[in-house]
Structures are given as C-alpha cells and as structure tokens.
Specification:
Layout lengths: L1 H28 L8 E7 L10 E4 L2 E12 L4 E8 L10 E6 L6 E6 L12 E2 L2 E2 L4 H10 L6
Parallel strand pairs: 1-7, 2-6, 5-8
Antiparallel strand pairs: 1-4, 2-3, 3-4, 5-6
C-alpha cells in the first residue's frame, strides 16, 4: 500500500507544478489580462506580421494587445482593434506604426504619442497609421539601385 500512497503523492506534486507553470505562463504572456483596458481602432494599408495577440507598445513598453483584425472589403485595408491598459492615456494626435523588433524579429504595433492635451476616448479610431514595411521589397530596391545616390 505504501507504493500506492507514494505514487499518488508524487503524481499530485507533479500535477500541482504543472498547474503553477500554466498560471505563470499565462500571466507572463498576457493571456490572463482580465479584460482591464479600453479598445482603440486603426486601419492599416499593410499589417504584415501582426495578428491577434500581437503586442501594442509605447516607448518600448507593452501597454496592450491586438484583439481583432479583419479586411475591410470596401477600402482593402486591415481594420484593427487593440486594447490599451487602463490608466494609459493616448493623446488624440498620436500615430500608430507597425514596427519590427529587428532584422529577424517579429512585428508589433507601436504607438507614437503626440503632444495634444486631449486624449482618445474608448473605441476611438486612430487615423494616422503606417503599415508594415516589407524587408524583401526594400532589399530588392537596394539591389536594383532604385533611387540610390540620386
């Protein structure tokens, strides 16, 4: 009977460790944000490398996540919804840019704050946007010599 008790105790300890790891991983990746935040929208020409769950950053600090992406069939632009943490006020003349973490890194949505004393209301649309820049198209322009040295 002692083998049974030992096996149950070890199994319970392993299960508790797995649950603790899952909770930690959820908090570290921002999956358990608890819905604290307010939505903003933006429309991009190109949203390459960005999907639901992508970070939204301001000054390099994560302040939210992308919560929705869909193609606007009339304008052929990517309409995006993202959440911003409560207490983070975004000036109403701010811009939203799809930025890259580096040459091989992933993309994220970056908010470039303006200087207005007025702030976006929840659900407002940020109209000043800049989509993703394709690294491959930039390299092709460089190799082809388009506009270099002129």
């Amino acid at each position: 009977m002692s083998h049974n008790t030992t096996e149950v105790l070890v199994g319970g300890a392993v299960l508790a460790a797995a649950v603790a790891f899952a909770v930690y991983a959820g908090q570290a990746t921002g999956l358990s944000s608890g819905g604290s935040g307010y939505p903003l929208t933006a429309s991009f020409r190109s949203l390459e490398g960005v999907s639901v769950g992508t970070d939204v950053r301001l000054a390099g600090v994560k302040i939210g996540t992308v919560t929705g992406v869909e193609l606007n069939a009339e304008t052929y632009r990517a309409d995006t919804v993202f959440s911003v943490a409560e207490g983070v006020l975004i000036p109403d003349d701010s811009a939203v840019v799809v930025s890259s973490e580096g040459l091989l890194g992933g993309n994220f949505v970056e908010i470039m704050p303006g200087g207005s004393p007025f702030y976006f209301d929840p659900g407002a649309e940020i109209e000043d946007t800049q989509g993703a820049v394709s690294l491959i198209s930039l390299l092709l322009k460089f190799v082809a010599g388009d506009g270099a040295g002129e």
